């Protein structure tokens, strides 16, 4: 498949383009400059490939969960490009893209959701087991043993996750983030159906995006 993938759910801007061969990739930290950097970098990748949007089969975007603002940026840009070129969209959950970067039998993905919470999901044999959840890191569970812990939650809350889960974990890889090149691979599996640009949806998991002043004060006490 000929695909463009984008993710702006973290501090990284992650883009990947394939025309059926090797992928061209841009994956770098940009802070809060996703809105300014995304379109120019997409234009650069297309120019480097000597391609146009009209040659693509679909545009893949990080569906979430993640930064509320970042998710909206990626979805909005993906929709705009899809409308302009008459292309379908393919949404892929961010945690699926993290889990796919590890080839072990069991993965526990925990991404830092701020507010002393994590987005979490379990994967076995490459398939997600249950829904993506959000909650306190102390509430995350992984029955049995042989789990590899993936994602920023393990760096943000080491006591609540690494220490508490103990022997259930065989390794942790806290550096892993959603990566656009992985979105290309997942989209090509056919497990994520394409849809019209106007039907694009985001996976927020939670609706609250910040603590109130009272809640912040209680946490500091």
Helix content: 25-40%
The level 1 CATH classification of the largest domain is Alpha Beta
Kindly report the spatial arrangement of strands forming the biggest sheet: 3-2-1-4-5
Beta fraction = 25-35%
Q: What CATH architecture of the largest domain would you give?
A: 2-Layer Sandwich
**CATH superfamily of the largest domain, called what?**
ATPase, nucleotide binding domain
- Stretches where pLDDT falls below 50 for ≥5 residues? 208-221
InterPro entries: ATPase_NBD, Gcp-like_dom, T6A_TsaB
Protein name: tRNA threonylcarbamoyladenosine biosynthesis protein TsaB
Organism: Crenobacter luteus
GO cellular component, one term: cytosol
Detail the topology: elements first, then pairings:
Layout: E1 3-7, E2 12-18, E3 24-29, H1 34-49, E4 58-64, H2 68-85, E5 89-93, H3 94-99, E6 106-112, E7 118-124, E8 127-135, E9 147-150, H4 153-156, H5 158-165, E10 169-173, H6 180-188, H7 213-220
Summarize the structure.
Helix content is 31%, strand content 28%.
Explain the overall architecture.
- The chain is an alpha/beta fold and 221 residues long.
- It folds into 2 domains: 3-94 and 178-199, Nucleotidyltransferase, domain 5; 102-173, ATPase, nucleotide binding domain (Nucleotidyltransferase, domain 5), CATH 3.30.420.40.
- The protein has helices at residues 34-49, 68-85, 94-99, 153-156, 158-165, 180-188, 213-220; strands at residues 3-7, 12-18, 24-29, 58-64, 89-93, 106-112, 118-124, 127-135, 147-150, 169-173.
- Helix 1 packs parallel to helix 2 (68-85).
- The protein is elongated, with a radius of gyration of 18 Å.
- The model is unreliable at 208-221 (pLDDT under 50).
């Amino acid at each position: 498949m000929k695909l463009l993938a984008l993710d702006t759910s973290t501090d990284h801007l992650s883009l990947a383009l394939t025309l059926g061969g090797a992928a061209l990739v841009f994956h770098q930290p940009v802070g809060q400059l996703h809105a300014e950097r995304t379109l120019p970098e997409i234009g650069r990748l297309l120019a480097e490939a000597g391609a146009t949007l009209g040659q693509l089969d679909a545009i893949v975007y990080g569906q979430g969960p993640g930064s509320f603002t970042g998710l909206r940026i990626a979805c909005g840009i993906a929709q705009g490009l899809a409308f302009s070129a008459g292309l379908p969209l393919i949404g892929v959950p961010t945690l699926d893209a993290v889990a796919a970067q590890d080839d072990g039998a069991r993965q526990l993905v925990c991404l830092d959701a701020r507010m002393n919470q994590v987005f979490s999901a379990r994967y076995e044999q490459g398939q997600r087991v249950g829904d993506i959840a959000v909650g306190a890191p102390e509430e995350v569970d992984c029955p049995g043993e042989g789990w590899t812990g993936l994602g920023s939650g393990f760096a943000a809350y080491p006591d609540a996750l690494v220490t508490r889960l103990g022997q259930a974990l065989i390794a942790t890889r806290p550096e892993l983030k959603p990566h656009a090149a992985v979105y290309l691979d997942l989209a090509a599996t056919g497990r994520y159906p394409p849809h019209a640009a106007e039907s694009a949806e985001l996976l927020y998991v939670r609706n609250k995006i910040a603590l109130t002043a009272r809640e912040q004060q209680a946490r500091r006490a």
